[in-house]
Records
---
Amino acid sequence: MPDTSYLDWPFLEQRHKELALSLDRWATANIDEAPHARGLETDHACIGLVRELGGANWLRYAVGGQAFGGSAETIDTRGVCLIRETLARHSGLADFAFAMQGLGSGAITLHGSEEQKRLYLPRVAAGSAIAAFALSEPDAGSDVAAMQCAARREGDAYVLNGEKTWISNGGIADFYVVFARSGEAPGARGITAFVVDAGATGLEIAERIEVIAPHPLARLRFSDCRIPLSQRIGEAGQGFKVAMRTLDIFRTSVAAAALGFARRALDEALRHATTRRMFNRTLADFQLTQAKLADMAAAIDAAALLVYRAAWLRDQGASITREAAMAKMVATESAQQVIDAAVQIFGALGVVSEAPVERLYRDIRALRIYEGATEVQKLIIARELLKNAAATGKP
Ligand SMILES: Cc1cc2nc3c(=O)[nH]c(=O)nc-3n(C[C@H](O)[C@H](O)[C@H](O)COP(=O)(O)OP(=O)(O)OC[C@H]3O[C@@H](n4cnc5c(N)ncnc54)[C@H](O)[C@@H]3O)c2cc1C
């Protein structure tokens, strides 16, 4: 394990330190870092990881409510962040498997009925049911409120029609938390959340999508998909709030995953720079290399401070819109630079397929886009600043 001194920072408690260290030991012994290099196809590898993470009790941190299999009554943001950071250091796919169980069931933890919690959360925590979060559409990505997928009320049922795309776990999920336009009001106030079982009549996987860092991803089509009222999550017209509250937790954890990727890149770079010989010295003996390593280390600490500040604040019950946006923007953007520097330090070895730094180079890219692209995070931060300035009357 790399330098763990950050586990003693005041944002974290002793139990967090123990969690991170024990997960690291478990991951070292159990996680297959390169399933694709060994010819394992993505769906199979991902399902296997969910089952393993569930079997070893790590997924209990992805859900809230001890009666429903959760590790605590509410989701511990710092715990989730440390788990994602640690898993990301070992394997992008393991981090993905953990994160999607949380993101895909977060709306149920936060707003689900007792019956929904009883039906879904224990299976998510055990790894026996795979969760997915279906918000984006072909014409509604950053502009979520432009969504068109429709939910029409018919007696004690809703009928869904439309498409969702870029849905992680699409094709292997057992259920999808789906956000659809139910029409109570225009824009963001006319959206409702539902939980839809994968086998529901009228739900089909329209397309499987291959991406730069392979993981299960699909476009879903709903054609007169009839679901009982009992599958609605929260109140009608409150779906946008449900989605945003879920993303508030998991946006910070995307930053934590980026941090894990960056830490791994620095470890790899240090190992290579201190062993690679050239010009009768090691690569690390050159000041140009030292400058790179210094930039990488400082960027990692800056990102970590923002991640654990946001996570700590949320665990104190604070609103973290600005802090989560800052953490995500800085951690994902700087991780991309740290990883690129690591590839450079490796030379040709850095671009060999399935070399650790080559995998990291692909793993990090999408994090700057999903759960709010960097540009969207900038707008959020600026909006909060301006709102505050207007409220206080100070610049
Ligand atoms: C690997 C992966 C997994 C995903 N998993 C899921 C999932 O599980 N569930 C789900 O619902 N969605 C998922 N998504 C979708 C993701 O949330 C969207 O891709 C994201 O919200 C951006 O939407 P978009 O791709 O339509 O890009 P667009 O909205 O078309 O934006 C394109 C680009 O425009 C820029 N931009 C955006 N807004 C502004 C602005 N106001 N001003 C200037 N520039 C701007 C940004 O650079 C952005 O990347 C996933 C995406 C990827 C890549």
Note: The chain has a mean pLDDT of 96.
---
Amino acid sequence: MAQALALLGGTPIRTRPFTAWPVFGAAEEERLLRTLRSGNWGRLDGVEVAEFEKRFAVLHGCQHGIAVVNGTVSLRIALLAAGISGEDEVIVPPYTFVSTATAVLEANAIPVFADIDLGTFNLDPAAVEAAITPRTKAVIPVHFAGQPADMDAMMAIAADHDLLVLEDAAHAHGATYRERPVGSLGHIASFSFQSSKNLTAGEGGIITTNDDRLAEACRSIHNCGRVPDGVWYEHHFVSGNYRLGEFQGAVLNCQLDRLDAQTTIRDRNGRRLADRLAVLPGIYPQARSAECTRHSYHLFMIRIDPAAFGATRAAVIAALQAEGIPCSAGYGYSLPDQPLFRNKAFGPFLHRAAEALDYGKCQCPNSDLICREQGLWLEQNLLLGSEQDIDDIAGAFEKVHTHRAALGGFDVQTT
Ligand SMILES: Cc1ncc(COP(=O)(O)O)c(C=O)c1O
């Protein structure tokens, strides 16, 4: 019998830390100092955000990039730019960060949940089709964990029903679908640069598009309702200031220099880990679609079937953590179950429409199963190291499986 589980007093597989995140160095220091000394700290005076917008857009196959303060307002601005409002319906997945749905509410539109696929964890096209009504105006596929959603299906459905497709690419910087970059696959896209993301400045976001009209509308919305040939104190509609600052632009330009090499490493390590784990009973790494030509692996996500594996998710997480492998259960709520939706706590939005809504009636069994019992996440920095790191992670899963019978008493909640 192999070494006992660390959870039960054995020696952990791993005591060294994994690659720390964020990765930064002299380049960031120099560029930040240069920006500081320039005295041009705002987007409208400096060069950093403007340069970043261009580079990021080109890398993602787009003519336009509009940098904003985070990946929540970028979603909302994209919806507003497309004219979504007035209690239109927007289809979103239930298995995503809350912003994908709250951005819809903050555009005064109604989020309608369509379930995800149990293999890829991305929106299920059949569920999207079934959720369409005469009021549906848009769909927001999330490229979950960094794997592009089924965009051929999304675009075909959108063409049939005249819908806007807004990609939520918060997890997917640098990912490709049939060799085409995410961010250019739908009509408009949104990315986040929040601390955990594969490209980060602590906070930040960007909208990408090839549609000149949408780009111009986003630029106006992110800049207090100004218009291209207007004067400074001239405002054409109610809006706010969502411009990104130059210090974040400086950091993002340096982080962008690192992105390609980091994405290559994550994709290689992610594939290696998926191959190792897929042979274990009850362990289902995110299914990789044939169209995914580059996975950005913001998360390495697994579905664990407790009956087939022989231990509950909570016990497995506790055992893996004790072996030195940081991991979590991820989202504990499918979005329709969130108090926000159950109580329709929509603040100033959807006054008339809210009365008729009942999110308790949503049918999203795949999302429910993953949130309540089966989802397991490893974060992207675990994939940034050597093959030995991947062997340690796989070795820990194998060890936990070998000793699964000893885990009966460890059904504690660990998230
Ligand atoms: C899928 C998804 N969409 C949107 C967001 C919102 O981004 P931000 O945190 O920059 O507002 C996140 C952030 O966690 C996310 O994971």
Note: The first helix runs from residue 26 to 38.
---
Amino acid sequence: MQQHDVLIIGTGAAGLSLALKLADNANIAVLSKGALTEGATLYAQGGVSAVLGEQGSQDSVDSHINDTVTAGAGLCNRDVVRFVVEGAHASVSWLINQGVSFTLNDNPNNMARFHLNQEGGHSHRRIIHAADSTGKAIETTLESRARAHPNIHIFEHHIAIDLITSQKLGLTGNTCFGAYVLDINSNQIKTFSVRKVVIATGGVGKVYLYTSNPDSCTGDGIAMAWRAGCRIANMEFIQFHPTCLYHPQAKSFLISEALRGEGAKLILPNGERFMQHYDKNAELAPRDIVARAIDHEMKRAGLPCVYLDISHQSKSFIARHFPTINNRCQQLGIELSKEPVPVVPAAHYTCGGIMIDPHGRTDIDGLYAIGEASCSGLHGANRMASNSLLECLVFAHAACEDIQQTLATSPVPHALPKWDASRVTDSDEEVVVSHNWDELRRFMWDYVGIVRTTKRLQRAKNRIQLLKSEITDYYGHFRISKDLLELRNIAVIAELIIESALNRKESIGLHYSNDYPKTNTTSYQNTILKKP
Ligand SMILES: Cc1cc2nc3c(=O)[nH]c(=O)nc-3n(C[C@H](O)[C@H](O)[C@H](O)COP(=O)(O)OP(=O)(O)OC[C@H]3O[C@@H](n4cnc5c(N)ncnc54)[C@H](O)[C@@H]3O)c2cc1C
């Protein structure tokens, strides 16, 4: 039995920030299901949005709030937006103190210390960044700090299976006491008994066939919280990035919208452009419009992908402006100055998640959720670029304050029952797991993707019910593995997305239904699901 003060499930920006903030006063266990740095944070390119009060800037907190609320299409919680935006300055300062090297301003006419970028939806330059790999700079800095801290106990290649709650143990009340965790290398199941549990497991992109997310994004934390009885909100709002590289050897690689900014055109296999039929700004239309247009063209003509053509630019221009993308394409034999690159839209960001209050608390005592796994009210129906890392940092701080105030009075770690594996055997049909993974991700892409209809959602609902019963049966009979646990979780996530999408009888933000193309401006409701 592992006994600690706090168990943090997840080691991205959210989990590691919280661990470091708590560690001087508490004994912390952190889990990552792969290597410690592997998660969405590592791949974040753009940066962190923050009004830093830099000299010469016309930006303001109110402007950042208004931009966020506009992007969220009326569904943001304005108090939460203010709370997060006001917390940005302190969060960025904390990162700098940890040692993150943000790109400095090298323009002698500009008085600001840091170079700030501007991204879609932001009315000012306010994205602090570390070149084009901000996430890597943050993640690796936090990693080295965490590895050096004597109170942080790191469990890599450990996958949390389920939470241990009073309800599960047949006790009164509604408290979380710990979690069962599979040590992937030794195949042993460990019991963690703690005073507080924090879910920081990131998003759900892997539930779709195409995603910009790394393999870890299977929504485990959201699925665990759902099984334990937490409310889950706004799961229909999945953000799709319009252009992810489509190549058998290139998993989850984004082709930045900056290429379209430099004149790249979206074309069909016959070389015809199509974006001009969808928006007056053609290729420079907002992300969700471009993603919907590509999706429409792919479905209309049964295409596996469309193409992005920047061949009007010279080889040297492309190499200078897009070094990372150029290198990756060249590795795959694609010469951008000569030929178009195949692209598909891809699931990118999960706006919904475990409902939390401004302290990161969930519906269960002692259980917190922070980062992309949570639904704080910040994003509403659509996330504004670079607000997500900020949310991780601000809520890590908020949860830290609450945990520090309440840790001493929380129940001491219990002697919890061991995991019971007496009724399961080794599987003789692993093929069921891999087949169901593929089937689920494909029908989620085809039926619950960028443009939805009630008929397709119903079709997906029937499929998921069948799959879920098959998975439950398999789970009850065979020894668990990482693949099986993740499959069980993406099935829950798929069901939550389908159910939320069916509940929303309008098109708003990231949810678009052909059957309900208008927004219902009189209601502006969140979709909240609770297990019966
Ligand atoms: C390609 C890409 C580019 C992006 N660019 C930006 C950007 O520029 N700016 C911005 O603000 N946002 C960006 N985002 C979004 C942002 O990166 C994420 O929202 C953020 O990093 C999420 O951080 P997190 O800590 O919540 O989760 P993650 O960083 O995904 O970490 C999740 C952690 O949970 C662990 N975990 C998951 N399940 C389990 C389990 N069952 N047991 C144990 N451990 C588990 C994982 O191993 C991992 O350590 C981008 C995302 C992607 C994919």
Note: The two ends are 32 Å apart (CA to CA).
---
Amino acid sequence: MARAQSRFVCQSCGAEFLRWEGQCRSCNEWNTLVETVITVRSQERRRALPVAGSITPVPLSAATEGAVARLPTGMRELDRVLGGGIVPGSLLLIGGEPGVGKSTLLLQVAGGVAAAHGGVLYATGEESAGQLRLRAARLGLGGGPAADAVAVLATSEVGAIIEAARQARPALVVVDSIQTMTVEELDGPAGSVGQVRESALRLMELAKGEGIAVVLVGHVTKDGSIAGPRTLEHLVDAVIELGGERGGVMRLLRASKNRFGSTDELGVFEMGESGLREVADPGRAFLAEHDGAAPGSVVAAAMEGSRPLLVEVQALVAPAGYGTPARRASGIDPTRLALLLAVLGRRAGVGLGSHDVYANLTGGLTVAEPGLDLAVALALASSMRDRPVDRGTVAVGEVGLLGELRPVSGLDRRLREAARLGFFRAIVPEGRRGAVAVEGIRVVPVANLRDAVRAALTGGDPPGELAPVMVEAETRVVG
Ligand SMILES: Nc1ncnc2c1ncn2[C@@H]1O[C@H](COP(=O)(O)OP(=O)(O)O)[C@@H](O)[C@H]1O
Ligand SMILES: [Mg+2]
Ligand SMILES: [Zn+2]
């Protein structure tokens, strides 16, 4: 029989200590150490873990990693984010706030994988088998061969899941959620760091040892981290985050870690009565629905991974009362916003030092891409001057500290997408290699932010050195 030992495990970072201390020496959090019983057997097992795979070294030339056959999930947006489907034997973590749709997504994935590859084990510690059946019916997976190939196990015992998986040998195991799972030998409650970590370790053994893909669901806490230990994120092969605006229908899927693909692809879904639906036209999904131009609104032609995405930046600028002016950014990096405010003031004659500033992207999207700079700066200037930017205009460009505009990658792809969605004018950085030409779009190249503000806010009647470019373009339209 295994001998029990007691350790003090930090609930914030997962570090282990022999004695209780008020502050964790590893992450400096206070009062996070909790006594956890760890059996010697589980530690010995863990030490033996590396043996699970092959222990014979192979020549590099014989290591055929690139040839793995992936399991398509039946949801193309998810497959894109994963890099082409789920890799057999991998351990994935899908995180998101409660209610965002993690269980919905994974039940649909279970149906999709079962339809094409057979054999999925859906283990849930959150719902009863009956509740899961009702949900499946609502998602349209009620009957048929796919539903027969999804085995449901309502349990919170990791041992039971591993036992069932070793017998049934499914292609995919879903564990919903890792915070409800417990390992018999540990006596901490479900959701404690000790339980979460040990459960995940054993499920990793299952994945690597048996070549079965395992997907863990993880609830995300208010501060945005996956509840439980950070160590979980280091353990898994990929971390996929499902997010979206509270109360909205749009759902975004993004990898924050991916051993088998890139982390900059974005998946876009809509939540409906019958589950998550892929958005047919993601390029349009983040444009707010209002007609007519309003001061403070500028559309950017951004890139998300390999996909051009049009997003609307909204800014509101108002004289500040007493104290430090407010700076609020949502979907935009606040440091980037601060930099753009400084450049606007010093280099473009739009001083906002004594104004409250609010800037956000519509649709709950977050974009960290330099090409967004120009649209943010123009939205701020537009709100400050209370002049709208003409409808049908998009802006792309990185803003430098001197107020200069820098070219961005994939300009023609961005502008083609803008043209497809009905935009007809683009304010872009002046390129050294000549202008881009995209059918249906009048390109307005500008050298710096000052000229960009002038071009954007004076619409079709620009003064100064921009006039020749514009007039020529106008003449062509009229004539
Ligand atoms: N009966 C229902 N009809 C329509 N939509 C529902 C229904 N039940 C749940 N939903 C939708 O599914 C969401 C919950 O999804 P779920 O997959 O349970 O989230 P999670 O597993 O991330 O906590 C709800 O926020 C709601 O949008
Ligand atoms: Mg759930
Ligand atoms: Zn700690």
Note: Residues 10, 12-13, 15, 24, 26-27, 29, 32 surround zinc ion (ligand 3) (CB under 6 Å).
